[in-house]
Design a protein that fits this description.
With about 150 residues, chain A is an alpha/beta fold. Chain A is built from five helices and seven strands. Chain A has two domains: about 80 residues, Fe-S cluster assembly (FSCA) (GMP Synthetase, Chain A, domain 3, 2-Layer Sandwich), CATH 3.30.300; about 70 residues, no CATH class. The radius of gyration of chain A is 17 Å and the shape is elongated. The longest helix of chain B is centred in the first third of the chain and has 25 residues. Classes of the chains: A alpha/beta (about 150), B mainly alpha (about 200). At the A-B interface, loops of A face α2 and α6 of B.
């Protein structure tokens, strides 16, 4: 019989379809996993409501954990604060500036370059390749980079 | 309440379609990207609200006759002119913030929509800051003002007047349709009509 830990481990292996360096668990979109009498119940919270990867993620969970019943919860429980510390580090290493915690971001407009760590960066565009990213430019190492938006 | 939510969802769907008309032809590459992303978000919000109202969001979104839509005429206007487009984006975001705030306690998804709208507001405000004293922009705001009021319930309109700094006038209300809506409806529902029910993509 499958255990809660095994389900989490399986979900850890599902990459985000748009930023495959992080898993669904890293992204914090898996809200809960319950196992009872061999039945698996996974609660999943979308990142952005208009995210085209949403259906894809749901299907990926169902394929990875065939006995799972996936419930999509569209409340306000997901924010970028739900991205795990490991997920943030994976994002940074791949050249995506991870989102700052909401409390910090709302008080300071500091954005750090994922390549050189400088905070001498400027906004190029609020929107980027996907709605969850902005485009910034680092004036220290002269690299453009993608900033995961804090929401 | 359901009529209010249907109006909200239809507004988001239709403004999403209208904003997406800039994809590929915006005056700047950055705006091409911004408008495409904003449109995608708005249509995502429409879907989330349709899902509260019906089991099949697509059916609710696309299987109605044009006169059954509840979107405000404001979002229907076909505005392929930048000053008017930016004026509408700004007025729409200010109005939308007022009505979303009124829904947050009763509709869980409203809080999530509100979170995403933060970036739409930043974008709209940035353009408003840049263009607020330009005559073409002021003219566009004045022309669109009766339409913008029609997005909100009458009791919410004084708040919009205060935020925008204009006096209340007779609003162009929901339930009336701009002449351009029939063609938009035709385009919006084309794929749905041409594909057999239950088609998998």
């Amino acid at each position: 019989m499958v255990t809660v830990e095994q389900v989490w481990a399986a979900l850890e292996e599902i990459p985000d379809p748009e930023i495959p360096v992080v898993s669904l668990v890293d992204l914090g979109v898996i809200r809960s996993v319950e196992v009872s009498d061999g039945r698996v119940h996974v609660q999943f919270t979308p990142t952005f409501l208009g995210c085209p990867a949403l259906e894809f993620m749901k299907r990926a969970i169902e394929e990875k954990v065939p006995q799972a019943e996936v419930e999509v919860v569209q409340d306000d429980s997901w924010s970028t604060d739900k991205i795990t510390p490991a997920g943030r580090e994976k994002l940074r290493a791949a050249g995506f500036a991870p989102p700052a915690p909401r409390l910090v971001q709302l008080q300071s407009q500091v954005h750090r370059c994922p390549y050189c760590g400088s905070t001498e960066t400027r906004l190029e565009n609020l929107f980027g390749p996907t709605p969850c990213r902005s485009l910034r430019y680092c004036t220290s190492c002269r690299q453009p980079f993608e900033q995961f938006k804090t929401i | 309440m359901n009529d209010l939510l249907l109006g909200l969802a239809d507004d988001e769907l239709v403004i999403g379609w209208r904003d997406s008309e800039w994809t590929g032809i915006a005056p700047m590459l950055e705006e091409d990207v911004a408008f495409s992303s904003i449109a995608q978000n708005e249509i995502g919000h429409a879907r989330a609200v349709y899902e509260l109202l019906a089991d099949d969001a697509d059916a609710l979104a696309f299987d109605r006759a044009p006169n059954e839509y509840r979107c405000a005429p404001f979002v229907q206007l076909h505005l392929l002119e930048w000053a008017h487009t930016i004026a509408r984006r700004w007025l729409y975001e200010v109005a939308d913030e007022i009505r979303i705030a009124a829904l947050i306690d009763d509709v869980p998804v409203a809080a999530k929509i509100n979170r995403e709208e933060t970036y739409h507001r930043m974008h709209a405000e940035m353009w408003h800051e840049r263009l607020r004293d330009e005559p073409r922009f002021r003219e566009a705001v004045t022309e669109l003002w009766p339409y913008a009021l029609g997005v909100l319930l009458p009791n919410q309109r004084p708040d919009l007047c205060a935020r925008v700094g204009l006096d209340e006038v007779a609003a162009v209300e929901r339930g009336t349709f701009d002449d351009s809506f029939a063609a938009l409806h035709d385009e919006m529902t084309m794929v749905r009509r041409s594909a057999p029910a239950g088609a998998q993509w």
